[in-house]
Structures are given as structure tokens and as C-alpha cells.
Automatic annotation (TrEMBL):
This is Branched-chain amino acid ABC transporter permease. Its main location: membrane. The chain crosses the membrane at residues 51-71, 78-94, 100-118, 130-155, 183-200, 229-251, 263-291, 303-322. Keywords: Amino-acid transport, Cell inner membrane, Cell membrane, Membrane, Transmembrane, Transmembrane helix, Transport. It comes from Streptomyces purpurascens. Belongs to the binding-protein-dependent transport system permease family. LivHM subfamily.
């Protein structure tokens, strides 16, 4: 009897469930996940956004290397400082509570002044004393650690976000989507990169920067004030790094070590594009950003940076000077 009652109960449950199942099958479609093409397009959109942010931060790093051949390991901290200064002015309880736009502009000015102060206070005296590039590179590592831990003490370890443009609805781009905030960041980043290209090609200071990058001694012999050009490059690099930090913190989150995490991708972008080439840094960073995001279609997100670096290695095996770099004789 017990088994018969259990069987009857089971049949009753089946009879109750069948109409609901059949009604859903007739009236509604079973929801399906996005297709591979849709996910690929979304990854491409995210990769372009990520790539142009890397490019903004990497251009200054590339120009510094082009003018004084210094690998500035502390450049990532300029990114973090720009993001945290904007956060203090915008969303910190101890700050004035400015809107994000004036806070970002103030952070860019602060980054430019910091870059100029570092050049005048550290690198110019070291060059005047004939300090070698290896020794100066070690100094950049020490400066990076110092700045990073100053930010850690002042900002703390808790991630935070800005007060504006945090939660937004998505704009449809076919099967992909992007928020107005991310679209604005992408478009502004592209405009900034175009502005840098125009500055380098159409202005006297840009021509002087390209001349110093091509041949420092010849540029100095032709009457160019190399020290002024180098100071301008450091201020430009500091301002761009701060702007990139604000953009990165806006689309992701503000943390005390965000610039250090981005530094490896900056180096990958300028090496892939061609050391010392501002345009190469733009192209290489865009490639790194797209590859990093597209790799998530097949591999775990934790490995996206590893695949970007693998592409860097493969390209350099075929073209050692980078995408837009010039081949040089050694020896």
C-alpha cells in the first residue's frame, strides 16, 4: 500500500507539471545565452575601450624613453596618483565634494606638476652628475615603491568608486552594449590621442620633441633647448598618466595599486608598437587591449594579460623593432 500511495503521488505531480511545461513550450521560448558572435563583438568593444586607456598612459612613458632613454618604472604610480587625487576631490569624506569633471581636470594638472617636479628635482640633477641609465632605472624602482606606499598610507587598501556616473543603463550596439559612461571615456580617449598626434606633428614644441627623440645631440646643436623639451615631456607624461588613471578608475574601480597593475600592459604596448614611438605606443596598446579582452572568449579571465604578452612575444619574434619601430644596427 505504501508503494502504491507513493506511485499515485508521483503520477499526480507529473499530471500537475505537464500542463505547465507544455504551456511554457507553446507560449514562451526557453531563454538562451548570447551567441558566440555577440560575445565576440562585446569583447571587441571592451578591448577597444581598454586599449585606448592603456594608450593614454603609455604615450607619455614612450616619449620619456624616446627623449632621455629612461625606462620610468614609477610611471604606474602617476596613474594611481591621478585617480586618487580625483577621488579625494570628488568622493572622499575629507574632500571638497567637487563634481568629477573639475576633479579630473585638477588631477591632470596635479599629475603634470608632479611630472615636472620629478624631472627638475631628481632626473635632471642625476643626468648632470653623469649617472648611468641602469642606476637611474633602479632609482625609478625605488621612487615607484615610495610613491605607491605613500598612496597606500593616505588612501588605504579599500577599493572605491567616484560619486558620479556609477550605475547606468546600457546602450545597444547591435548584439553588444556599452554604457554612456564607457562610451564617453572611449571617445574622449580617442580625441586625446588625436590631439597628441596633432601636437607632435603641427606645433613647434611637438617638432622639437620629435627632433630630440630622433637625435638628441643634433637637436641640441641645431639650437633646440633640450632641457625645456625634456621638462615638457615629463609634464605631458604626468598629465596623461593622471588622465588615464581617472578614466581607468571610472570604468573599473580606484585602488591603491591600480597603476602598478597597468604598468606591465603599458610596457607591452610600447614594446609592441616600437620603443620611443608615440604612435607605436598607441597602436601597440590598442592591440594589447583587444587581445586581452578577446582571449576571455576561450580562456579564463585571470589569463587575459598572459595571452596579451604572448602576442607581444610572437610579434617581436617576427618584427623585433615592433610594429612601427625602426630597425637599427647593433655594434
Amino acid at each position: 500500500m505504501r508503494y502504491q500511495r507513493m506511485l499515485v503521488t508521483a503520477l499526480a505531480l507529473v499530471l500537475v507539471m505537464v500542463p505547465a511545461i507544455s504551456t511554457r513550450a507553446q507560449g514562451e521560448e526557453v531563454p538562451r545565452g548570447p551567441t558566440f558572435a555577440a560575445r565576440a563583438l562585446q569583447a571587441l568593444v571592451d578591448g577597444i575601450q581598454f586599449g585606448v586607456i592603456i594608450a593614454i598612459t603609455a604615450v607619455g612613458l614612450s616619449l620619456i624613453f624616446g627623449t632621455i632613454h629612461l625606462i620610468n618604472f614609477a610611471h604606474g604610480e602617476f596613474v594611481t596618483i591621478g585617480a586618487t587625487v580625483a577621488f579625494f576631490l570628488n568622493a572622499s569624506a575629507a574632500g571638497p565634494g567637487w563634481h568629477l569633471i573639475p576633479a579630473a581636470l585638477a588631477a591632470v594638472v596635479f599629475g603634470a606638476l608632479l611630472g615636472g617636479a620629478v624631472e627638475r628635482g631628481i632626473w635632471r640633477p642625476l643626468r648632470a652628475r653623469g649617472t648611468g641609465l641602469i642606476n637611474m632605472f633602479i632609482v625609478t624602482i625605488g621612487l615607484s615603491l615610495l610613491l605607491r606606499h605613500i598612496v597606500l598610507v593616505l588612501y588605504g587598501t579599500r577599493p572605491a568608486s567616484y560619486a558620479q556616473y556609477d550605475i547606468q543603463s546600457t546602450i545597444g550596439l547591435g548584439p553588444a552594449g556599452i554604457t554612456p559612461r564607457d562610451l564617453t571615456v572611449t571617445l574622449l580617449s580617442v580625441l586625446v590621442l588625436l590631439g597628441i598626434a596633432a601636437l607632435l606633428q603641427k606645433t613647434r614644441i611637438g617638432t622639437a620633441v620629435r627632433a630630440v627623440s630622433a637625435n638628441r645631440d643634433l637637436a641640441e646643436a641645431s639650437g633646440i633647448d633640450v632641457r625645456r623639451v625634456v621638462l615638457f615631456v615629463w609634464m605631458l607624461a604626468g598629465g596623461l598618466a593622471a588622465l588615464g588613471g581617472v578614466f581607468f578608475g571610472l570604468v573599473e574601480i580606484v585602488t591603491w595599486d591600480m597603476g602598478f597593475k597597468l604598468l606591465l600592459l603599458m610596457f607591452a604596448g610600447i614594446i609592441l608598437g616600437g620603443l620611443g614611438s608615440a604612435y607605436g605606443a598607441m597602436v601597440g596598446s590598442l592591440v594589447i587591449g583587444v587581445v586581452a579582452q578577446m582571449s576571455t572568449l576561450w580562456f579564463p579571465v585571470d589569463l587575459q594579460y598572459a595571452w596579451a604578452l604572448l602576442v607581444l612575444i610572437l610579434v617581436l619574434l617576427v618584427r623585433p623593432q615592433g610594429i612601427l619601430g625602426r630597425a637599427e644596427r647593433v655594434g
